[in-house]
Target: Multidrug export protein EmrA
Amino acid sequence: MTNRQKPTRRTVAWSASVIVIAAVAVGIAAAANNPQSEQGAAEQKSIPVNCVVAQQVTEFEDVKTYTGTITAARVSELAFARAGRVTKVFVDEGEDVYQGKCLAQLDVRHLEARRSELQAQRAQAVALLEEYLAGPRKETISAARADVTDMRSQFEHAQASHQRNEDLYRRKVISKEEYDRSNFGVRSAKAKFDSTQRKLDELLAGTRKEKITAQRAAVSRLDAALKDLAVDVDDAHLIAPFEGRIAIRHIDEGTYVSPTTPVFRYVEITSLEARIGLPVDIARTIHTGMQQDVLIGDRTYSAKVKTVLPELDSTTRTRTVVLALDADAAETVVPGEVARISIPETVRTAGYWLPTAALSRSSRGLWSVLVIDKLDDTATGIAARRDIEILHVQGERVLVRGTLQPGDHVITGGTHRVVAGQKVRGMIQ
Model:
């Protein structure tokens, strides 16, 4: 070894000694500060955390919201009851209409002509009936009496002449032919006298009841024809059946319509309904007359259950509940808006209610909570993980089930600084 090499070896030896001493020092310091060592575990302080005691429930009340639509209580496709040409339309789309207002009119000129004709026929029939009821005039009876007197005189004269001819015939003064002619004259005069007498008797007795009855029937028949015509005239005017609003106007003047031609789509505005589909089991708890709050937009309205339809909706498989809104809702609500109702429902399932802050994500998309295990009298123990399953979320709390046990102290605060195996001290909220 040269003199140049000797200092280098001494330097290396000294450096190695320093490194060994430093390593020993670091090891001692690490051993003293390691929390996993027995000495560190003995000296570890517990971390204060908030916690709740897990209490199992077997059922809970959940409020579910169901959605439906606002509809008018009555919606009609108005049409004329008879065919004809439209001559006047009195309303337009969006116009509010009172009950009984005339909305449109058909041409009624031919109906008016027919009515005038029937009225004339009825006047004639009534005049004849009044004549029958009043009976014959005095002048007619006097003339009939005079005819009877004249016929009686002629009959008596013929009878007297025949008696003389009968005596002459017995004496063979006149022929058989002249006698027969005289006898025929008597019978003819007698027949005329009887005829005029019967006419007088008929005039004195008045008009026969059967004739009066027949004439009254004729008047009634014309009255019926006039009433039927009045219905036709009424049907030529389209009248608003209830208070409402014109939603759609389908026709204009000059259009020829039939009884199946819609003229207006007419919507009632004073009475609104909410139609909401409910599951069958929920619908069974709803009864006619029940009060129910209905949320429409950002406002809540009072309503009363009008009916529950007996059949299932083929699409949604729900039963439709019809709720009648209070009258004041018509001022701000229009058909077609979305309506919502909330109904409390008892759900029977076992679990534990925990604050959402107690949950943390676990592996494979699951959830877990930390509980205080091995509790002592001071509520101090070791944090342990429990896997759970979320059953229901309700605001700031959740219903869970899993490996929890009744009485477990579940950590709800400070979980971000606590890990499993760490010593903690629970403070029950």
